[in-house]
Amino acid sequence: METNANQPTALPDTAAAHNQPVFIPLEQVTRPNLTTEETAYYTNRKSQTLRAWACHENGPIKPLRINGRLAWPTSSIKALLGVK
Asked: Residue 16: CB partners within 8 Å, gap ≥ 6?
């Protein structure tokens, strides 16, 4: 079997190769708010669960609503998870 010089023989086993976002450790996050997807990753919940918490206002974290989008306070997430 011939290999084409323009094609890799094997894809690297990374998140980028699988079209998955790469998240830094929560301890290193310095932004004041996180997206729903980031918060879902750190809390090990599905994004839809977080949206339901926001809609019903019954979750352990209260999101901010900024121009119709949910923003989850990083400090609240860190406090919930016991991260400094």
From this structure: 22
